[in-house]
Specification:
Helix content: over 70%
Number of helices: 7
Shape: elongated
Strand content: under 5%
Order of helices and strands: HHHHHHH
Largest sheet: none
């Protein structure tokens, strides 16, 4: 049976991850505004969206397949919206921006990587499950990739003296978000199809038809 998150251990882990993301959002938001960085903007949005969508995941635990798959689809949509926002910001920065602060980018990237490493350690034993559970792990994995990329971006900006590494990484991260959004959507839709064609649902439909025919 696919794990649906209905365990005390998973609930506690998820609450811990929500707290980590709220702290990460506050720290990176301030630093991102100071640095004027596209990659840090992506990081800030990601922390905020993760805190919100993980809370949704926590609420959905124990609900029906339809509710849990719906929560996963909402998370998928949030990832797609973030990707669009990051792309728009990167394009705007390419046209009007100046070179961001390399030291701030790398420092906050390493901070984010440490925060998400802690979150990943809390969730690693729950990395497989239904679309709702799986989406939490994929988002956490994305955060690790993102924060390490942001830290490397700061080094690249310092070496080249150019804003382009920051913009390229911002676009790359948007692509990572879009890919995860697609993976979550595919699994959630598959679970919805399986739930709608389950034997108990087919029996209910057949019984309803028979009752209608008798009338």
């Amino acid at each position: 049976m696919v794990f649906d998150g209905a365990s005390v251990g998973y609930r506690r882990a998820l609450m811990g991850v929500i707290a980590i993301n709220l702290v990460g959002f506050g720290v990176v938001a301030v630093g991102g505004l100071m640095a004027g960085s596209a990659s840090l903007a992506a990081n800030t949005l990601d922390f905020a969206a993760d805190a919100a969508t993980y809370a949704l995941s926590l609420w959905a635990i124990g609900k029906s397949v339809q509710v849990r798959a719906g929560a996963a689809l909402i998370k998928s949509g949030s990832l797609a919206l973030m990707a669009a926002g990051i792309l728009g910001f990167a394009i705007w920065r390419a046209i009007t921006g100046v070179t961001p602060e390399a030291g701030v980018i790398s420092g906050l990237g390493l901070f984010g990587a440490a925060a998400n490493l802690l979150a990943a350690l809390l969730l690693v034993r729950y990395r497989n499950g239904d679309a709702n559970v799986r989406s939490v792990w994929l988002c956490t994995r994305n955060d690790m990739i993102q924060c390490l990329a942001v830290a490397a971006t700061g080094v690249a900006v310092a070496v080249t003296g150019s804003r382009w590494p920051d913009l390229v990484v911002g676009i790359f991260l948007a692509g990572v978000f879009l890919r995860s959004a697609w993976q979550i959507t595919v699994q959630a839709r598959q679970e919805l199809r399986e739930a709608n064609t389950a034997p108990e649902n087919r029996d209910f439909v057949t019984h309803s038809r028979q009752s209608t025919a008798e009338l």
